Hints:
Layout: H1 9-22, E1 33-37, E2 48-49, H2 52-60, H3 69-82, E3 88-92, H4 102-105, H5 111-117, H6 126-140, E4 148-154, E5 158-164, E6 167-171, H7 193-202, H8 206-215, H9 218-223, H10 228-236, H11 240-264, E7 269-273, H12 274-279, H13 281-288, H14 300-304, E8 311-312, E9 321-324, H15 329-340
Parallel strand pairs: 1-3, 4-7, 7-9
Antiparallel strand pairs: 2-3, 4-5, 5-6, 8-9
The structure holds adenosine monophosphate.
Adenosine monophosphate is lined by residues 155-156, 184, 227-229, 274-276, 279-280.
Amino acid sequence: xxxxxxxxHSDGFDRIFKAFETTGGKITDLxxxxxxxxxxxxxxxxxxxxxxxxxxxxxxxxxxxxxHNPPNLLGIRIAMASFPDTPQVxxxxxxxxxxxxxxxxxxxLPRDLADELRIRRYGFHGTSHAYVAxxxxxxxxxxxxxxxxxxxxxxxxxxxxxxxxxRCIDTSMGLTPLEGLVMGTRSGDxxxxxxxxxxxxxxxxxxxxxxxxNKRSGMLxxxxxxxxxxxxxxxxxxxxxxxxxxxxxxxxxxxxxGAYTTALGRLDALVFxxxxxxxxDGVRAGVCQGLEHLGVRLNPNxxxxxxxxxxxxxxxxxxxxxxxxxxxxxxxxxxxTLAVI
Length: 341
Ligand code: AMP
């Protein structure tokens, strides 16, 4: 671990390469470099070899993800300059969700306006949802094509996906990662009129509201901390706001599980992943409590046991398997990169 001031991305890359060299890594042997790109829009729907056309296409999605796509492009350019002969592949966070049917991705806005501005549900964390859905099928020893899954990516950002036969049919994040579940600092679902109300009554500008909903809401806004460990500590110590925030957090997830079970028609497994999903047995218990009528029965001892491996935490007689599957977006990006090369 190096803790130093880093001037810019290029300087950061240089230091990473030097760190490889000092630890004996042979960076000249690279087969390819995979880049996580947040927004592929509706055009970039599969891992893509980076060339001028790909760079132009990623730049064109920038208005949809102004905080993410420009830095992603910067990383690609620097890697290309450092390794001009190594193939570079862009892997899109939105790609896995492109199989959603229009009834799931279309917002009820005037069609022409929405189409012109490409306003629709895209969904994010696709690399993670794809990875854990495949790993869940492996863990269950059944073909992914036969399984209906709900994957819960609960990290600082959080989203849920309904996966039928290995394909995404619905997901909770929308045009941007703001929609859906309660997150570390994002509100998730909200009456859109709250935005007008904040503007008219509190005099907040569009940028103020953007900042409020993305960076100062969610668990931070409700409980005063965005780290789930801290929220759980406060709730255990009797902090009423933290306890209520946990209830809001778990209830929102339960509503999505109910809705997506209906969308899927039958649920085989509920899959928890990412920082909170993998580590917080309290959140897993809070989510599953009240889902018994859907066939979800946790085994409390299995749920409390810690492990870094994929595991079943439901009871043997639970009609729906509840799994914890550690995500590995880097590995998934590497594998997809290799497949493209
Ligand atoms: P991620 O975005 O996947 O890295 O997840 C980050 C989130 O995971 C943060 O809110 C952490 O507080 C949370 N997290 C990590 N470890 C634990 C834990 N043992 N219990 C509860 N939350 C945790």
